[in-house]
Amino acid sequence: MVAVIVAGGRGERMRALARGIPKPMLPINGRPLLEHQLRWLRKNGFRRIFLCLGYRGNSIRRHFKDGGAWGVCLRYRLEKRPLGTAGCVRPLSSQLRRSFLVVYGDLYARMGLDALQCAHQKNRRDPRCLGTLVLKNTDHPSDSDLAAVNSRGRILRFFNKPHAHPPRTRLANAAVYLLEPKICSLIPSGRSSDFARDIFPNALARGHRLYGHRTRGLLQDIGTPGRYREAQKTAQRRGLG
Question: What φ, ψ does residue 70 adopt, rounded to 5°?
Answer without folding.
Answer: -110, 10
